[in-house]
Design goal:
This protein is α/β, with parallel strands linked by helices. It is built from 14 helices and 16 strands. The longest helix is centred in the last third of the chain and has 26 residues, at 335-360.
């Protein structure tokens, strides 16, 4: 009886004990793009559904697209769940777009030996000369002024150092975590996530104190689709998709009815165009690659002893180098992709497509047309009214403008339906 009473008391105590608080956690490692914005928006909604104390975003990024950054900032400012951006681990950076995102958080934190800043807007792409794109002064000034006013608005909203925020855009200022804390750019420094939760505990956000000291961390993973598109959002992927589209469409054109190359090429082309809409693609690079394809094909149909193929290789190499701005680390296409792709593409057109098209121009070796030019022996008298010949195991009707006697050797001049037009063998 006494043991039963103890068990009942224990159960009542457990039932009345408050449930452990939750802190939602996501990790962003890499460039900021559409998939990142989608992931963060979904995580904010999920953190609210879980009634989490806050959403911690562990951030390490070299920057990204302004459109995606604006979407993320808007989600932060409209979130009912406190958002904590934590630049981590040690050695991580929050530069360019990452600076905007960190300043927009309810609480900005950094790990020791991390950096923030360098938020000056960059125009990506190239110009026909192949040099780095240099926008006119008016457009450059407009973009810079917008970025300055935007980061100023964010910093003022979160009561952070507005002057430094503007210098991060105008002068590409970049500072360490310790300096950022001193200048009131961020709110705190924490060595790791457990320390971060301890330092967040009791901090008031929108009039509500956070209870995170003993909170349970619930990590929200990227969905499969977000993970796929995050991986696809890379210059290398678009480059490879473009090559697949080229090979597939050219393969379908040179071997009509194959279907599979055309389908694969069309799908790759659609995906490449989708990525081209959100990646800083240089149109001149695309034009040079298209020119290279034309030169490869022309050299197949009009042999020039490899002159056009060599021109195509040069055009493809230069176009690939210009496809993305190599001066920007976010969208740089490595030579380890460009050089093998150039060699493989040249080999593809010289050996695969070239042999296929040349094979189509060979004389017919099968079917009724293959009988033209063959010599046979007349089985019956043959004249303009008709006769018979025995060819390849079959009896055929035959006509001849010149009368032919049985047993005479004749040559097949033409095939008209089921009738052969023959003539006496010359010589």
């Amino acid at each position: 009886m006494k043991s039963a009473l103890i068990c009942l008391t224990f159960c009542l105590v457990c039932a009345s004990a408050p449930a452990a608080e939750k802190v939602a956690l996501i990790k962003i490692n890499g460039a900021i793009g559409p998939a990142t914005a989608s992931y963060i928006a979904r995580s904010i909604d999920e953190a609210r559904t879980q009634n989490a104390q806050c959403l911690v975003i562990q951030l390490n990024t070299p920057g990204g697209l302004l459109d995606s950054t604006q979407t993320i900032v808007q989600d932060f400012l409209g979130s009912t769940v406190p958002v904590v951006v934590y630049v981590s681990p040690t050695g991580a950076t929050a530069t360019s777009a990452g600076c905007f995102i960190t300043l927009a958080a309810d609480v900005a934190a950094m790990a020791p030996a991390t950096t923030i800043g360098a938020a000056h807007p960059v125009m990506l792409g190239g110009i026909p000369s192949g040099q780095e794109q240099k926008p006119d002064d008016t457009m450059k000034q407009k973009l810079e002024n917008f970025s300055v006013s935007y980061i100023e608005t964010i910093a003022a909203k979160r009561h952070r150092n507005v002057d430094w925020a503007k210098s991060a855009v105008r002068e590409s200022a970049s500072i360490t975590a310790e300096k950022a804390l001193e200048l009131k750019v961020i709110d705190l420094i924490a060595a790791d996530t457990p320390e971060l939760l301890k330092r967040l505990n009791g901090r008031a956000v929108d009039g509500k104190a956070l209870n995170t000291a003993t909170a349970e961390i619930a990590e929200i993973k990227m969905s499969p689709s977000e993970r796929v598109f995050q991986q696809l959002w890379r210059p290398e992927v678009m480059f490879i998709l473009m090559l697949i589209a080229i090979y597939g469409i050219i393969g379908e054109m040179t071997t009509p009815g194959a279907i599979l190359p055309g389908v694969v090429g069309a799908i790759a082309l659609i995906l490449a165009l989708y990525l081209a809409a959100i990646l800083p693609v240089n149109v001149t690079g695309v034009v040079l690659i298209a020119l290279a394809m034309m030169l490869f094909i022309f050299d197949i149909y009009a042999p020039t002893h490899g002159v056009l193929t060599m021109g195509g290789i040069i055009s493809f190499l230069i176009g690939s180098l210009m496809l993305f701005n190599r001066a920007d680390p976010l969208f740089r296409l490595s030579l380890s992709y460009i050089i093998p792709a150039t060699l493989i593409t040249a080999a593809f057109f010289v050996f695969v497509i070239g042999k296929g098209l040349r094979a189509q121009r060979l004389p017919v070796k099968t079917g009724v047309q293959a009988m033209v030019g063959k010599t046979v022996t007349a089985s019956t008298p043959i004249d303009s009214q008709g006769g018979r010949v025995f060819v390849e195991g079959e009896n055929w009707s035959a006509v001849s403008d010149t009368p032919v006697e049985p047993g005479e050797v004749i040559e097949i001049a033409e095939v008209k339906g089921l009738t052969l037009k023959v003539q006496p063998r010359k010589g």
